[in-house]
Amino acid sequence: MIEQILAYAPPAGALFNVNIPSFERGPIRGVRVVPQNIAPYRETYDRRVDPRGRVYFWNNPGFTCPEPHPDTDVSLMNEGYITVTPLQFDLTHAVMLEQMKAWQFRLG
After folding, report:
1. I need a labelling partner for 16 at 20 to 30 A (CA). Which of 50, 53, 62, 103 fits?
2. Which secondary structure element, helix H or strand E, spans residue 6, and what is its range?
């Protein structure tokens, strides 16, 4: 997948999320380019104590997304597809940035 993506010469700074389903679920059905799922995941944590007596939390494996949005990386990977999602580093909300420039902020 990586070699195929790079063969298209993506622009500098491009980032790709590639998910490959478990082969235990059967043969790969194909490749889909899809948006990232934004439905919430369910994660569980173990409360642990380190040798110095400090409490920390360890993320358990097997987090789930009980209701993934249709036609997203999670739903299609669950259907046996390799999913590819183009991402970007800049998370700035450009429209809101411009709107907020007119806001009046005060200290205190």
Report:
1. 62
2. helix 2-7
Angle at 63 between CA 60 and CA 68, to 5 degrees: 170
Name the phi and psi angles at 75, rounded to 5. -65, -40
How many residues appear in the chain? Answer: 108
Closest CA to 22 of 65, 79, 84: 79
Please choose, from the candidates 1, 20, 23, the residue with its C-alpha nearest in 3D space to the C-alpha of residue 10. 1
Cα separations in angstroms, 84 against 3, 19, 73, 103? 13, 7, 7, 38
Work out the mean pLDDT of the chain and round it to a whole number.
Answer: 90
Of the candidates 7, 16, 8, the one whose C-alpha atom is nearest the C-alpha of residue 88 is: 16
- pTM assigned to the model: 0.69
**What is the bridge-based pairing of β-strands 81-87 and 30-33?**
parallel
pLDDT value of position 60: 85
Nearest to 68 by CA among 25, 38, 104, 101: 38
